[in-house]
């Protein structure tokens, strides 16, 4: 009967609802008893926006006077409801605009992708009133989703194969949002956040540059009402703002890595070394903590370039760079200083600790046999100079000069050895410390 009033836009007085053919039994409700009904449409600007339905036990309990009173009230109720709806819509729009502005400004609040993704997940969850949010990056080539940030939800699997979930794959490939209810969608079993019982989840594609780069999963673990079309549009817009923000951070990180890394060897370059050396000098000046600087020059490398060419020379440099990374500690920084010279920056490291690292470096370099393009083997050595802050200098320039001078003393004394610099001996040349027995040449090599 309510549907009839909406369809026809006319009020209805029903003397006995139990006998009216428009009455439908609702499963799970008590049997229909004799009752009277009065139904009046709510109108706003000529459109039916709702229905007032009154009922009384008994037959023929409403008359024309009741109808006129309810019609007067219905006009006032329709206006009040529409005003309330508009006010709520305006407030929601203001909240969404603030959330969108907040999301667009997130770029300045984090300089790495995981931190930014967690921040965006928090902002999206709060804006949507959701209990949790997961943001993942999609690798289309491998069909893998990788979780990069979350808020309010424990993510059991950081990597997720989208081939196992048709609905997730559809969201990513067609760039269309989907609402999933865990209790009635079998596909929900393969969505990570849906493993919480009773969860409703909104899947949103993360777009950047006209392509899908990831997925946003908004989860409601408590009883949740249906999402309106306006709300879905708002959340899609927020996700569309989050996508470029994340993509920009990723691109900046890639560009920064290209700017910081030597393209031949894969270790840090001269510019990055100078930047970190400035930072480490300033930090140690504040904390009085020592740090060490190891300058390395390869022995016999020039003949590799002269005899075998720069292609083989570059491969030798790359292999030696790998040996340096294996020899140092996780906290140490390896950089190519230029040509065949390398530097190892060792934060919070005194002379005794630095000497141990330096010995491993020299032994690692001279213990490696490099196969050339003509299948011959070549072995190079390493001369190293070690400078300690603040003993050998208090500025980057002083420390580099001390380590460089010590390294050339080691080289003049036969190479493949370590020279410990000091304020006096770096200039005049004191005794060298051997790195250990020199390794024999490569079998079948030079």
Strand order of the largest sheet: 6-5-4-9-8-7
CATH fourth-tier homologous superfamily of the largest domain = Reverse transcriptase/Diguanylate cyclase domain
Summing up helix and strand content along with how strands pair, one would put the structural category as alpha+beta
Q: Kindly report how far apart the N and C termini lie.
A: 100 Å
Number of strands: 17
What proportion of the residues form beta strands (DSSP E)? 15-25%
CATH architecture of the largest domain: 2-Layer Sandwich
Number of helices: 11
Task: Assign the CATH class of the largest domain.
Answer: Alpha Beta
The low-confidence parts are 186-193, 423-431, 435-441
| Mean model confidence by pLDDT | 84
CATH topology of the largest domain: Alpha-Beta Plaits
**How many domain units?**
3
Largest sheet: 6 strands, antiparallel
> What's the alpha carbon Rg, rounded to whole Å?
37 Å
Which H/E pattern describes the elements?
HEEEHHEEEHEEEHHEHHEEHEEEHEHE
Which word captures the global form?
elongated
Helical percentage? 40-55%
């Amino acid at each position: 009967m309510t549907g009839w009033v909406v369809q026809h836009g006319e009020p209805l007085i029903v003397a006995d609802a139990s006998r009216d053919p428009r009455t439908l039994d609702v499963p799970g409700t008590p049997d229909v008893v004799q009752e009277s009904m009065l139904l009046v449409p709510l109108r706003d600007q000529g459109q039916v926006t709702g229905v007032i339905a009154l009922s009384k036990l008994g037959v023929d309990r409403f008359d024309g006077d009741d109808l006129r009173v309810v019609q007067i009230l219905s006009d006032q109720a329709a206006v009040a409801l529409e005003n309330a709806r508009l006010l709520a819509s305006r407030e929601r729009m203001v909240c969404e605009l603030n959330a969108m502005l907040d999301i667009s400004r997130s770029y300045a609040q984090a300089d790495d992708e995981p931190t930014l993704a967690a921040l965006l997940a928090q902002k999206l969850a709060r804006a949507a009133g959701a209990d949790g949010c997961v943001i993942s990056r999609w690798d289309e080539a491998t069909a893998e989703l990788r979780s990069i940030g979350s808020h309010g939800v424990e993510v059991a699997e950081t990597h997720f194969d989208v081939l196992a979930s048709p609905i997730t794959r559809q969201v990513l490939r067609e760039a269309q949002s989907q609402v999933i209810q865990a209790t009635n969608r079998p596909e929900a079993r393969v969505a990570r956040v849906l493993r919480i019982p009773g969860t409703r989840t909104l899947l949103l594609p993360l777009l950047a540059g006209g392509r899908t780069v990831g997925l946003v999963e908004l989860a409601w673990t408590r009883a949740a009402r249906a999402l309106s079309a306006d709300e879905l549009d708002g959340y899609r817009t927020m996700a569309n703002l989050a996508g470029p923000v994340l993509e920009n951070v990723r691109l900046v990180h890639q560009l920064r890595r290209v700017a910081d890394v030597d393209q031949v060897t894969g270790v840090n370059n001269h510019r990055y070394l100078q930047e970190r050396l400035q930072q480490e000098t300033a930090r140690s000046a504040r904390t009085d903590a020592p740090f060490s600087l190891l300058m390395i020059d390869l022995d016999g490398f020039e003949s590799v370039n002269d005899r075998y060419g720069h292609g083989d020379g570059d491969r030798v440099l790359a292999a030696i760079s790998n040996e340096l990374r294996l020899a140092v500690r996780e906290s140490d920084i390896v950089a190519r200083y230029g040509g065949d010279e390398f530097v190892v920056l060792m934060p919070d490291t005194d002379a005794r600790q630095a000497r141990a690292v330096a010995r491993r470096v020299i032994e690692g370099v001279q213990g490696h046999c490099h196969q050339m393009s003509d299948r011959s083997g070549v072995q190079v050595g390493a001369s190293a100079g070690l400078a300690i802050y603040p003993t050998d200098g208090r500025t980057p320039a002083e420390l580099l000069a001390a380590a460089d001078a010590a390294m050339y003393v080691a080289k003049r004394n036969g190479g493949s050895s370590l020279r410990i610099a000091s304020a006096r001996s770096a200039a005049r040349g004191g005794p060298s410390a051997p790195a250990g027995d020199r390794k024999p040449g490569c079998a079948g090599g030079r």
